[in-house]
Amino acid sequence: MSGAIFRDPWGIPHLRADGMRELARLQGLVTARDRGWQIEVERHRAQGTSASFLGAGELSWDVLVRRARVADTARRCLARLEERDPETADWLRAYVTGVNEGLDGHDAPEFARAGVLPGRWEPWTPLAVWLSTHLLFAGFPAKLWRDHAAARLGADAVGLFAADGPGTSGSNGWLVAGERTVTGQAVVAGDPHRYIEDPGVYQQIRLACPEFDVVGLAVPGVPGIAHFGHTGTVAWAITNAMADYQDLYRERLRRTGAGIEALGPDGVWRRAARHTETVEVAGEDPVEVEVVETERGPVVIGGPEGLDGEVPEPGEPPLAVALRYPPRVTGDLGFGALLPLLRARRVADVDRAADLWAEPVNVVLAADTEGGTLHRVAGRVPVRSDANRVRLVPAWEPGHEWRGWHETPRAGLDDGLAVMANQRGPAAPLGVEFAPPHRARRIAALLARRHRWSAADMAAIHSDTHLASAAPLLDHLAALDTPDLTGPASALRARLLAWDRYMDAGSADAAVFAALRSAVVRRLAAEPALAAAATPPPYPDVFRPWLALVPRIGFALEHLLSARDLFGIDRPAVVRAALEEVAAAPPAGTWGDTHRLAPWRALPPEDPREEPGLSGDHDCVLCTSAVPGVTDLAARGPAARYVWDLARREDSRWVVPHGASGRPGSPHHRDQQPLWLAGDLAPVVTDWARLTKETDV
User: Fold this and answer.
1) pLDDT tens across 624-634, in order?
2) What separation in angstroms does the CA of 236 have from each of 226, 348, 350, 428?
3) 171 is catalytic
4) What is the dihedral of CA 170, 175, 180, 185, to 10 degrees?
5) What angle do CA 185, 186, 192 make, to 5 degrees?
């Protein structure tokens, strides 16, 4: 067996090998060479060992993945693969072999700065990386917020703050069938919105062997191309379906001479699995973690003695919360879909591969060169009571067990178009909260403006910044009695009512609107009627982002301003006061002056620089999410953009926020950022003659 690594002008690896297994080894090798520091951070995060070199700030995460049994679940999933799908298990082992080869003697400067050496990957490590990456993706901590809000503000608060989904959720995807394109062949386009990391969470790559030739976006540390790919005859893409497939159970636990017991729904106390683990913390004493698992699942919050600082309600037991999630129950993470996706030739092949998918639950779009299209949900969602889907449920009461799996819904196209943007679409029966419909409606409206589209036209949709969710706040402005306003406030009101509602980086009006929005959010959060929810319960720090009141108000503002009543709060008075506040000290610059990229890095850069200003906002198609009331900085945004052209794959386009290389100082570390900022895309190069051979391997 032999293979070779080629590079295109953007440094993107194109890998060619004599066989599928050798290609997997090559993918692991080049990923380790290009992204060694990144994937080692992810390995440590998946194993709960990141605090050992990154410090106490990572301790809460490490404790969560230990208690959630992430590494053990990955081992279970590998064992199931080896039993039921030995070909995929062997392919996975080949990838890990390549990773270990690439990490051997790796000289990325971050290793020296952190005082850590590259470790060794096990065959189950990619499964653990995938699982830890998506552990919080379905947002089970939202159930903690609903419990908290209902307990402090009443049951109506759950709906008020939902705003049809957390404002930070987002990914766009759309399919234009051949009847609506200039070539007569379909185009699939979109952009996944995730935390922007440096290096990026997606790796542009090409994998070619006698069985297949696929370009796409891989997840570093995981073999194949799971989410976005183009084989030449079929292309696919996904968005988060916003399905609810993780449950939280309140557990009654007690210590006995033999260990820990949990009370089941049949009234019987049963032995829970228990052991302890030690988490090393750089610069501090190690932390011992008690790991407990009941018949429902691993206990991720509390224990037999409850939480530190918790005072249970009279008659209530100390708090312990168990997490039940599908891979822990089934031993299947959906990796059996990865090879079938690479081998896909038609949408029917993608469809069959999607049947094997498990987690996370996604909406899939696909099209092929024979005119076939696909629009469906893929993944595993348990059938259980409605109460499980909304809040924590008592493990000791019957009626909260899982009763099989939902059949995943399907949908068609509407006038040759399909749009997915985390809205209530085909996945509606499987979820509780979804993204507001603005992005989906805007994409559909833009696509309706012409009958024929080309791949080159798609960048204009990616970069659209119209903010439909501004309407409720602007409606409140319009309804204000102007005689009650000062002169500056009246002038600011008139300016905002004339604003075109585009959140462009160069727009001073967008900056003023954002300042007003944040002022309204902060003032609502200070209202006595909401004070009871301002102090979160003493849950581990990793869950705090879901429990903070100000971000919750910021992301639900549209709904809170539009609801018939908001706990008696005088919303016109709040808006008037916020308008006067901003009029007295308006922002001096543009939206891009404060709405800047804030990528996550495991270590701060050695050469810190001011990050670029961004267009967009969390409800724009260009979804660059700030946290109204907290910061204008954007930690989330398009982690990649892609346009798959089924007429000619070489007319496809893509871009990532930084570059193909994870090595600081590499010419390809940040060379795509100007394109990404401008809304432009780089060509997908497929002609081997236009590539530069780096090495034979």
Assistant:
1) 999 999 999 99
2) 9, 12, 8, 21
3) yes
4) 140
5) 150
Per DSSP, which regions of 232-372 are E strands?
234-240, 247-250, 253-256, 259-263, 269-279, 287-293, 299-302, 320-324, 362-368
The count of other CB atoms within 10 Å of the CB of residue 438 is 22
Q: How far apart are alpha carbons 562 and 536 in whole angstroms?
A: 25
Cα four-point dihedral sign 639, 669, 627, 595: negative
Amino acid at 361: V
Query: What is the pTM assigned to this prediction?
Result: 0.96
SS3 call for 249: strand
pLDDT, tens digit (0-9, with 9 covering 90-100), for 510-531: 999 999 999 999 999 999 999 9
pLDDT of residue 266 exceeding 90, the answer is yes
Please tell me the predicted confidence (pLDDT) of residue 167.
42
Asked if residue 64 lies in contact with residue 300, where contact means CB atoms within 8 angstroms, the answer is yes
* Distance from the first to the final alpha carbon of the chain: 10
Per annotation, catalytic residue among 169, 171, 518, 615: 171
| Furthest CA-CA distance within the chain | 82
Q: What is the DSSP string of 460-495?
A: HHHT--B-GGGHHHHHHHHHS-GGGS-HHHHHHHHH
3-state secondary structure of 457: helix
Report which of 455, 106, 53, 491 is spatially closest to residue 280, judged by C-alpha positions.
53
Question: What pLDDT, on the 0 to 100 scale, is given for residue 523?
Answer: 98
Q: What angle do CA 2, 217, 632 make, to 5 degrees?
A: 145
The answer to whether 126 and 95 have CB atoms below 8 angstroms apart is: yes
Whether the pLDDT of residue 168 is over 50: the answer is no
535 CB burial (10 A radius; 0-12, 13-18, 19+): exposed
Q: Are 641 and 626 in contact (CB under 8 A)?
A: no
- The amino acid at residue 431 is G
Residue 296, pLDDT above cutoff 90: yes
Question: What pLDDT, on the 0 to 100 scale, is given for residue 274?
Answer: 98
